[in-house]
Write a structure and sequence with these properties.
It is a single chain. This protein has seven helices and nine strands, in the order ββββαβαβαβααβαβα. Strands 3-5-4-6-7-8-9 form a seven-stranded mixed β-sheet, sandwiched between helices. The longest helix has 20 residues, at 222-241. It is globular and about 50 Å long. It has a single domain (5-241), classed as Alpha/Beta hydrolase fold, catalytic domain (Rossmann fold, 3-Layer(aba) Sandwich). The chain has helices at residues 40-51, 76-89, 102-111, 129-137, 157-166, 194-202, 222-241; strands spanning 5-6, 12-13, 15-18, 25-30, 55-59, 94-100, 117-123, 180-185, 208-212. It is an alpha/beta fold.
Length: 242
């Protein structure tokens, strides 16, 4: 049994396991910026998986939720390494990674260099990181302001520098050949729907793609069930063939 997961800095990562513990196949679920593993739509997705016999592990990256670490150091680059630590702890299992928003960018970067990820799902996936950071946080002052006015989420220069350096993960799409599902809502004003269409085009249209009419960034309201109804059958089908 996995009692704890720690990243390269020795920080404990909070996680919740759902479904059969001894399952060979496992879905790891990662969250977006300023969030954690217990966002309602992620919990609903995990429950939908369990009802279909798919085990999952929801994880909060370091500095988020109940995980150890400082939020100011929670960057994509660090979270890619956190995901690596999770994969280390799950050695021997076949893993599909589901990432929401910034967590989807984390998955793209990790999957492009880590063969332990057997499949990928991007929920409202962030692709153009620099554009996102400038649109949403470009007017904030590091060390003074809070991201989306959340007291627990101080805006840091380290975050902005990392988003700028990465710029976009679109060019990595062509290097990823594993099964990949993109799910995006037409009403998403946080990560724009063009992120999904841009990365799909860069991959030559190989990914499965579901556009949910009227869904916002966090698949609120009826969109939660709609998202689960898209993702869970895809996972079941993918795990039966990969």
């Amino acid at each position: 049994m996995i009692d704890e997961i720690r990243n390269a800095q020795g920080e404990r990562l909070d996680f919740t396991w759902s479904g059969e513990y001894d399952a060979r196949d496992l879905v790891v679920i990662g969250h977006g910026v300023t969030a954690n593993k217990d966002r309602p739509f992620l919990v609903a997705l995990s429950e939908g998986m369990r009802a279909s016999g798919v085990a999952s592990l929801r994880v909060s990256f370091a500095g988020n939720g109940e995980s150890e670490g400082r939020f100011e150091e929670a960057t994509i680059t660090k979270e890619v390494e956190d995901l690596g630590a999770v994969l280390d702890a799950l050695e021997g299992r076949r893993v599909i990674y589901v990432g929401h928003s910034m967590g989807a960018a984390v998955g793209v970067i990790r999957a492009a260099r880590d063969a332990r990820i057997a499949g990928l799902v991007s929920l409202a996936g962030m692709v153009h990181t620099r554009d996102f950071a400038e649109r949403k946080f470009g007017t904030l002052t590091p060390g003074r302001d809070r991201m989306w006015d959340k007291p627990e989420c101080p805006f840091s220069q380290k975050y902005m520098d990392d988003m700028t350096r990465i710029d976009s993960v679109v060019e990595l799409a062509a290097t990823i050949s594993i099964p990949w599902l993109l799910v995006h809502g037409t009403a998403d004003q946080v990560v724009l729907p063009r992120d999904a269409t841009d990365i799909r085009a860069a991959a030559g249209g190989r990914q499965a793609f579901a556009e949910l009419d009227g869904a916002d960034h966090v698949f609120g309201g009826d969109a939660t069930a709609a998202m689960v109804l898209v993702v869970v059958p895809w996972l079941v089908e993918t795990l039966s063939h990969c």
